[in-house]
């Protein structure tokens, strides 16, 4: 009996040592000489090779706080993004990743946003703030195919006249959100439904009306908490980023608001109050 206990204890110790060694090996991949970011080179207004995206500005700000040079690994945000950037150690952080995604280890979320309605300022639908509004019946609405708002359109009998736009694309060659807003301005569609961090900044540039969807009931939810993503096992690095986010939250919020990103509370029911 004593031998069995001793054997189990020895095995447990070996597992702990092995796990610790594995974590140390993973942690060693994090650069100490640069803030290395994985990003899409053509995903405006989020990130762009020219540095114009709001995630670029957040990365630049955090690199300054850390007093490290900012370095990028560019790869389109499509299937294989994490496999070709973060996992092999070519970079150390993805600035924007939805909370709970299994491909990365998530930091604490640094903002919450929701899908939005975008309308022309002269549209009779500019004041609509929920998809069950009877005023939407008979109108053509643009929506990203397979996105959460599409399910709500179907529930309210609006999907039949909706115009769908591609979900998974290489933004270097396709721009579904831009095409949707072009169609809105041309009168091809009457309203556009977009993810807020995409639609908000793009609509702001065009002088369009943006209304966050805060009143929708039922699944799927339309709001998401956005984190930074690091490699699995890099808990020390994750905790460092958590501290960095916490100490610089107000500055991060300022960058997001200036870009036109709609910020909401953690439950997607109200706008986040400005300080």
Task: Report a brief summary of the structure.
The chain is α/β, with parallel strands linked by helices.
Characteristics of this structure?
275 residues; alpha/beta; D-Maltodextrin-Binding Protein, domain 2; ten-stranded mixed beta sheet; two-stranded antiparallel sheet; 8 helices; elongated; disordered N terminus; Solute-binding_3/MltF_N; Quinoprotein_dehydrogenase; Substrate-binding domain-containing protein; signal
Which whole number gives the mean pLDDT? 90
Helical/strand content category = alpha/beta
- Largest sheet entry: 10 strands, mixed
The whole-angstrom Rg is 22 Å
Q: What is the CATH topology descriptor of the largest domain?
A: D-Maltodextrin-Binding Protein, domain 2
String of helices and strands: HEEEHEHEEEEHEHEHEEHH
Text of the CATH class of the largest domain: Alpha Beta
Tally of helical segments: 8
Instruction: Give me the CATH architecture of the largest domain, please.
Output: 3-Layer(aba) Sandwich
The number of domains: 2
Ends distance: 63 Å
Helix content: 25-40%
| Unreliable segments of 5+ consecutive residues | 1-25
The CATH superfamily label of the largest domain reads Periplasmic binding protein-like II
Q: What fraction of residues sit in β-strands?
A: 15-25%
Number of strands: 12
Shape by Cα distribution = elongated
